Structure formats: C-alpha cells, structure tokens
Amino acid sequence: MKIIDGGVCAAKGFQANGIRCGIRKNKDKRDLSLIMSKVPASCAAVYTTNLVKGAPIAVTKQHISDGKAQAIICNSGNANTCNPNGKEVAVETANLLAEATGIRPEDVVVASTGVIGQPLDITPIAGGIPELAEGLNDNGSELANEGIMTTDTVKKSVAVEFEIGGKTCRIGGIAKGSGMIHPNMATMLVFITSDVAIAPEMLQKALSSDIAETFNMISIDGDTSTNDMVIVLSNGLAENPEIVSEGEDFETFMKALNTVTVHLCRMIAADGEGATKLLECHTTGAKDKETAKAVAKSVICSSLLKAAMFGADANWGRVLCAIGYSGAQVDIEKIDVDFESKAGRINVCKDGKAVDFSEEKAKEILLQDEINILVDLKSGEESSTAWGCDLTYDYVKINGDYRT
Amino acid sequence: MKIIDGGVCAAKGFQANGIRCGIRKNKDKRDLSLIMSKVPASCAAVYTTNLVKGAPIAVTKQHISDGKAQAIICNSGNANTCNPNGKEVAVETANLLAEATGIRPEDVVVASTGVIGQPLDITPIAGGIPELAEGLNDNGSELANEGIMTTDTVKKSVAVEFEIGGKTCRIGGIAKGSGMIHPNMATMLVFITSDVAIAPEMLQKALSSDIAETFNMISIDGDTSTNDMVIVLSNGLAENPEIVSEGEDFETFMKALNTVTVHLCRMIAADGEGATKLLECHTTGAKDKETAKAVAKSVICSSLLKAAMFGADANWGRVLCAIGYSGAQVDIEKIDVDFESKAGRINVCKDGKAVDFSEEKAKEILLQDEINILVDLKSGEESSTAWGCDLTYDYVKINGDYRT
Fold it and tell me: Which of B223, B303, B392 has the CB atom closest to A223's CB atom?
C-alpha cells in the first residue's frame, strides 16, 4: 500500500471543486464544495449522536437509504442547524445540484458546517451551483478541501493505492474539523472516495467498524457537534471483483480505509483549535478493549493534562488522575506511564507511583510537536489509541469570539 | 436564618489556625491548617469517586468509621497521592496532632491538596504541629482558610445562624477549590462545623442528600480530583434536642446546611482557575430530576460555551449543542434559552430555533461577572441548577505551568 496525492480525486471517476458563493463574510474563503462520481456509487455514512442534528443530516439519511449516492455538496459558514427553514434549504440544494449536473436529487449527499442557529439563505448557494458544477475537475480535491474549512488552519487530505483481485484500487479522503470535536460518534466532516467495487452493506460494515477505532477516538474539546458525518463513496471503477462478503479482499479494503482514516484523525487532532501539539495516548496491557479505549480517551480529554502538555510540564499525576475517573476498573498500583517524542522516551510513573526522572530530559521530550503518552496497565493484552491536542491560549481566543 | 461572620469558628466550641510549616516553596503562603472542636463531634463525610485516591482519604475513612471526630488537619502544596510513603505520612500526621492536643488519633481527620506524585516529607509537618496547636483561636477561620488554598485567589467562607428547639445554632464552612473540579462526587475540600446536636447517621444523611444538588453540580474543568472531601463536624454544644430522625428539626438543619453549601459552591465556581465570570445554569420544565441535572451539568461543562461566555458572545447554539449531547432525552423543538445578569434578561432561542434579538443588549448582559443561563425544557415540573465558570487565557496559563 502506498500513500499518493490527489485526495478525493485520486480514485477513478471522481472530480471535485470548491468555490466562494458568498455565505461567509470573509471574501477570501471558499464556502461551497462539490465531490462527484461519474457513476452512482455505493455509499456508507455515520452521523453525529447529538440529539440536536443539522437539517442536512435528515436529508442525506433519506437520500442514501438505498445505499447509493453520486455527489456530495457541502457549504461552510453556516451549520444549517436550529433554523426554521433548514430542511427546505437542504432539499432545495440537492434539487438545484441535480438539475445542474443531470443526476438524481436522491443521489446527492448534503452537508453543512459553521455557526448554529443562524438563518441560511438559499440565494448564494443557488447562485453558485452552476459555477461549482461547471468547474468540476480531476485536480479539484484541494479546492473542495478549502471550501469545507472553518477554523481549520491546514487542509486535511490523504489517498492510498493498493490492489484487490489484481486490480489497482484507490481510496482518498478530505476532512474538516478543528473544534466541537469529541469521540461520541462520527466527529467532524470526512468525505472519502474510492473506486473499489463493494456492496453498500459491506461498505457500511467497513466504515462502522473502522470509526470505532479512529474518528471516535479523537477529542479536541469534549463537545460533540450537531452536524458531523463521515461519508464514503465507492464507485467500482477499479473493476475488482465486487466485495460482497468478508474475506481477503474485504480485509485489504479495511486496511486501506484504516490507513486513510488514521491519517485524517491525526491531521484533525493536530489541527485542533489553537493546538500547538498532537497528543497520542496509547494504552497497552488492558484486560479488555473497553478498558483500553476508556483509559486512552479519558487521558486525551483531560483539560488539565492538555494544558500541562502545552506548557511542556511532565505532570504525570494528571494522567493518573484522568485514568482514575475514566470509569474503567483498573489496578492503579500496576500502571506505568511514559512520555515519548522524537526527542526520546522517559518513564515518569512506575506501578502507580512516582519515579525519579530528569525534568530536563522530560522537558526536551515535551517541547516537540508530537507527544505520545504511553500507559501500560499491565493487566492484559488489549490496547487502544486516542488522539487529541494541547489546550492553549488560542483555543480560548478562537472560541471566545467565533461568532462575532 | 441569617448570614454571619466567623467561618468554621462561628459554631460554639470550634477553634482554628493556619501556619506556614514549609511544604510550599512560596514563603508567603500558609500550608498547614487545623480546625478543632472542644469536644468530640458527630462527623459525616463524602469523598472523591476517583479510583486514584489520596492517602489521607484512606486514613480519614478509617478514623471516622465510628461517626465521630474532633479535629481536621490539612496541608496544601502536596496532595500526598501516588507516593510510596503516603499512608505513613498521613497516619503520622494524625498521631503527632493527637499527641500535641491530647485528643485520640482516631478522632483526627487528615486531608491534603496540591501536586500529585511528589514525595511528602513529614519533617515540616512534624515541626509545625506544636505552633499550629498552640495558636488555635476563636478567630482562626481565616488563617485555616489560607492554609488550604492552592490556586484559589479568594478565601471561601460562610456561616449561618438559626434556631432549633428554641436554641441558637450555627453552621459555618470554609472551602478550597479552583481546578480539577468536576461534578462526580464531593469535589474539592470543604470543612463545615456546626454546634447542632445531631446523630452521626442523620448528619451523614443530610450531607449525602445535600451534595447531590450542590457540590456535585459544580464543574470548573471536567477533571475529578483524587483528594476531594467534604467533612462536617457537629459538636452539639448548641444544646438543642439531639436530631435523631427526620422531622422539622432535621429539615431546619438541612436548610441551614444547604445555605452554607450553595454559598460555598458559588464561591468555588466563581474562583475557578482563571475565571472572570460565575456561570449558573438553571434548568426548568424537565420531565424528571435526572434530566434537569444532566442538562444543567452538560451546559456548564461545555468548553465551547465557557469560551463564548468569556468573550461575552451570545452563542446560544452551543447551549443547544451541549443539551443535545447531554445524554438526556429531551424534545429539542420545545427548548427556550435566555441569558440573564444584573444588566437584564434576553431570550435568544425559542422552541429550539433562532429568534431575533439585540446583539447589543445580549453583549451588555454577558459582560457582567455573574451570568445565568436559563433553559426551559417545557416538558415537566422538575428543575436543577449547576455552577461553573468561563474558560479563559489564565486557565491555560495556570495549568500550563502549575508544577514547575
């Protein structure tokens, strides 16, 4: 398997585009994106678990209930959530796009991201759709990526190439997500395209299984958004024998999908609002998977630890504290904690107790921009990884005045 | 019932003191406190639910298992948690205090607060105890209050006077707590003294019932500490007929206790690490108590909302978002949200949807230092209140470099 360029346009038969239609006040930002397959594709999705849901989610759910879709249209700048006219705008967006491109409205996935509770006017979207559709091109992944960004500071994109049944296959994805991100569901917007031939139910199975270990293991700030979705379109143009059951081909597909999702997870966590550091907590020696996950997530979610990591302070007591309130039943007296980065690795806690360590070395390790927090529970064989970021002045700045 | 001065020395027969014994590096800060009753008192306690627990908690639990205690000794600067010698130091502290004051070691409550996982030396404590005990006095509540502070910026103290069975009774309390505070148990250190005659089991009943609506409804940062406890000593010197069952006297006691605890809750939340504002979320119209509490707590815990409040940004979408992921089953389409402060009150969301409101007026309201977030679920009769604070640059600053 190799990492390649091209994002959502890497897979055969996919084009994309992103334009500025005028939803956002900032005139330099694109705010409307389109990803399109030449032919209808198998489609799988996961959505936010928040009871408050954006209007586009209801419309998308209905449209892909047959397991098929052909296009994804997404605006930024307005979440289209808690609006009196939310559903109408989402439906009309799909209709207008279908008209402009000649596909069925039922094959359109609609997504939105931005402020909650602001009326959304269809006018700029309607005005922009012709330009958006006409401009579809093979190198449009970056433009589409720009059009879905909100407080993101970098574009998040990856693609991989691999083989199934002797055929070259590709999966690529783009993502947005920087704040209001917490592992209770599919967090953020992630659009993944693939040219693999795979039945919709197998695609959904692959996605649902994957996100439990990837997107649901990220937290930026503990807030679960109202609009998040992960969508995968797989159009079959790689001409591999269609994957209709588990087996070797399905495993290969799962592995490729996981490469894409883990890559995007790390990019999302590293670009958390205000973040200066990517934090990765790796739990080993857990008696079961649930324990491994609960511990890793609790550590990555601790505001106190996140602030300590910002300050490059090896305050491992906060790691133990977060494990202690994780809800997992662990033997505190067995826990080892290490900090690791490209500057080295240091043991800071052994058997749940303080150990002598060099503060200087610890500081050097924690001043890097990717920090691994290694927790060994020494009570079993299971492991898990969660991703997050440090808590910084800029997180406060961004969110103290996001709307105005 | 009237609010009076005197803190933990307000009730008859209680004295207190606080000194600097040398645990903390900062030479201007007191770090060892003592509260003492002239006679053994009924004692009730609640402790942290964190699996990682400070050594003093185990010792205290054992000492008050007979429902009686006479003194509370507490150090700041070191949590005595995850230390190899933690239990020995806590036991020795109780022994030394008992020796210096002539009470039984089993009547000593031991508490600690500060950094986790640093060895704690008994030497400064042993050296300080004689001075601490000799200096006990009727006006010592403020000194004791100072000795338990860590990142607190204000002393937190209150006392009330009321009558039971024709006798004047008093309850007073001091508290510390600023970070690592989250409503999963008794959060922070709270020491309450009373001269009411009340059986230990009724005292425990009153305390356990009260904290569910008070200390467990505060959150500063979502982190549940390892050392927290709420202790009540009630020595009977008011000479009221002893409270041994529910009834009018018990209700009066509960009401007085609640006045003290709510007061301390508000002070703790307002003095949250880095906070500039006290946030109070009041939920009404809930179908049951659990829903009311879950919604109020979820709102007060949202990092995004806390940052918006810091910026005086009426971003009510974040209130709805937090309600949506609270886990409570609510009808989103019925929710009304108002913001209120001494500058007035404004409706920002009606029936789960945006309403037109004056951003200028909202700003004026949110620029005050006490903000009420009023959530009406319009689905029943139950209500609840939770307390928190805004998320600020200073929270990050304090916690980015707390230990070093």
Answer: B303
